[in-house]
Design goal:
- By secondary structure, this protein is of the alpha/beta class.
- The chain has 10 helices and 7 strands.
- The protein has one domain: Vaccinia Virus protein VP39 (Rossmann fold).
- Strands 3-2-1-4-5-7-6 form a 7-stranded mixed beta sheet, sandwiched between helices.
- Helix 7 links the parallel strand 4 and strand 5.
- The radius of gyration is 18 Å and the shape is globular.
Length: about 240
């Protein structure tokens, strides 16, 4: 029986109903504020660190990472159609099975591992084993940055079930359990709020902070009698994990 992932990933950019990659590099501009926020707030300042991005798609984040001066970046993706799109755009990423690629890496060889919209594609058993390998290949003090569907969000199911290849969604608690059980030192999660970089996005950010988020917190208080003030409610969330 053909693995459903192989069936879908093979033609990922064709069967999604839209073009996954823009026609030119200029099409990356809409993602620039998101990627710059991650680089500015969570990346080490040393531009010579070894960076590995798994499930990098057509390489949009890798483009900005290298454009911001980081010299030792490797991007891996298992979808031939995604890699073809990257090559069409002039971005050098590698076609490989990310699990097998990580298994071949030397111990303590990576300074920063990035998994944006990746870990939700694995079953619990697969992901637990993969996180053990993350721990093995990372140097002491190294970091992982992940971005994934938020099961605590009222909008979370639209992401969890928006892609047939999604297996999981996460909460702050469950993602902490996952990484701490593999030996990682700390796990911190953050809302993926609208990033204010123009009039429209500034308005969205104000509405989220002052109206939408308080309404959902109030609903949780009514339902459960209380709520963690730091609860993450955006449909996706970011997590940083330190070894």
């Amino acid at each position: 029986m053909k693995n459903y992932r192989e069936k879908i990933y093979k033609y990922y950019s064709n069967i999604s109903g839209r073009d996954l990659a823009p026609q030119t590099i200029e099409g990356f501009k809409s993602r620039e504020p998101f990627f710059d926020k991650i680089i500015n707030e969570y990346f080490p300042k040393d531009k010579n660190i070894n960076i590995l991005e798994i499930g990098c798609g057509y390489g949009s984040f890798g483009y900005f990472i290298q454009d911001r001066g980081y010299k030792n970046y490797i991007g891996i993706d298992g979808s031939a159609s995604q890699v073809n799109e990257a090559q069409r755009l002039g971005i050098n990423i590698q076609l490989d099975d990310l699990v097998e690629y990580i298994k071949k890496l030397n111990d303590k060889s990576v300074d920063l591992l990035i998994a944006i919209d990746v870990i939700e594609h694995f079953t619990k058993e697969e992901l637990s084993d993969l996180v053990d390998d993350f721990y093995r290949v990372l140097k002491k003090g190294a970091k992982i940055i992940t971005h994934q569907p938020n099961a605590e969000s009222p909008f979370g199911n639209s992401i969890r079930y928006g892609d047939f290849t999604h297996e999981l969604a996460f909460t702050r608690s469950s993602i902490s359990q996952l990484f701490l059980s593999s030996g990682f030192e700390s796990v911190k999660s953050y809302e993926d709020k609208p990033i204010a970089h123009g009039l429209k996005s500034k308005a969205r950010r104000v509405l989220w902070d002052k109206m939408i988020r308080p309404i959902y917190k109030l609903a949780l208080i009514v339902e459960s009698g209380g709520v963690d003030k730091d609860i993450v409610l955006t449909k996706n969330f970011l997590t940083t994990i330190k070894k």
